[in-house]
Amino acid sequence: MEIVIIGGIAAGMSAAAKAKRMNKAANVTVIEKENYVSFGACGLPYYLGGQFEDENEMFARTPEQIKKAGIHLLLGCQASKIDFSSKQVHVRELETKEEKVIPYDKLMLATGAKPIIPRIDGANAGNVYTITRLDRVRELKERLTDYRKIVVVGGGFIGIEVADRLASLGTDVRIIEAKPAIMSQTFDPEFSEKLKEAMEKEGIHIHLEEHVDNFETSEEEVVSVQTNKGNYLADAVILAVGFRPNTELVSNDIETLENGAIRIDPFGRTSQKDVFAAGDCASIPHRLLGDHYLPLATGANKMGRIVGINLVAAETEMEKYVGTLGSSAIKAGAYEAASTGLTERMAEQYGFHCKTTCIEVANHSNYYTVQEKIMIKLVYDAKSFVLYGAQLFGKNETVLRATGLAAAIHGKLTTKELGFVDFAYAPPFSSTWEAINVAANTAK
Ligand SMILES: Cc1cc2nc3c(=O)[nH]c(=O)nc-3n(C[C@H](O)[C@H](O)[C@H](O)COP(=O)(O)OP(=O)(O)OC[C@H]3O[C@@H](n4cnc5c(N)ncnc54)[C@H](O)[C@@H]3O)c2cc1C
To answer: What does pTM read for this prediction?
Structure first.
């Protein structure tokens, strides 16, 4: 059986490894236009911030390890066309320009997403960066001693992570966010406000409801950022305004969501026969919302593994993905926050009839140093009290509590059941009534 996978990072390599483990006789070929595979872009903000210096730490596996596992790698090769009727992928070797055609029995698309570059004058200047590629981030890291003032455009996950790390190095950082709150896709306003305060405590300037009109350049480098409200000097600019699924290769031949993401079913199948997809190029089944676009490594890895199983399984033995909750976490200065399932805003948007409770509760026993407050919000069905979503904000591993809450939402627990779940207790970690129990018991 010929299995061809386009894209060799989280989704593609998860699928390749699983398919090969399940069926040793299958020929698995991964086409990747870069000269590496299994790169963890999630590490880039922390590499930039000096949490670690060895770039190799960001590669889960080397090409040699992959080849040793019996997977055929075509590195530096771009899939340029797919002929779905004859089941062939046209591939161009980028250095030699040599073209070849590879037949497949089963194909997987794992081409990821591209950062959005706003159409603003100066956006292509040499000192405007996105945090997606190691080579550019390495360059930025090397120039950080010259870049004293950095403007980050976009107050989503990547903008906040990068601003947080740069501020920890003493850089003067300014975030420009067009919406009225940072991280507004993931958190309700009261949590966005807490995150903003946490960032401001680190000296980060946050400008809300402000959009960039123009990057002023001198000698092909941005020198200042002009917004609708002000002009800010900048030694460098970081663009973090979102991602677009990288699906030009197939967009005319395959069913997609409105944003161009390839629509897949819970088995990872696309609208084309024998063609699967996963990761940032595709939709993902959400447990509460159906087909959704959530470009996260967690989903890419899990859906990639499901596709790996189904690439080699008989139709009747295929496995279904259980569905994502879009669980995510962020660190902001001394604080951290997590969100899982629906926020109140999302619940309203999708027509759920919900109630919420939001409390501040101590993380552990008062006599154990240092007691801190955790803010917990629960979103639950107004009638059945089944939990739909949770958000947390606090210090000292607050985020790890989201794990219990994600499991509760996944298992469709009611707030009443959650209020009595037997969480572990000892004074350094929690209280006899764990913070999650306490929050759940305030649901009315
Ligand atoms: C800075 C940063 C921080 C992040 N932090 C987190 C985090 O904390 N938590 C989290 O869950 N997620 C995080 N993510 C998101 C996560 O990295 C992505 O969801 C994940 O990498 C998606 O994997 P993928 O395999 O779908 O796509 P990608 O990683 O984008 O890989 C796609 C690959 O396909 C290749 N390709 C594309 N087209 C072709 C073609 N025509 N021919 C050959 N090859 C092709 C590309 O070269 C690329 O290597 C972060 C992302 C970034 C950028």
So the answer is: 0.96
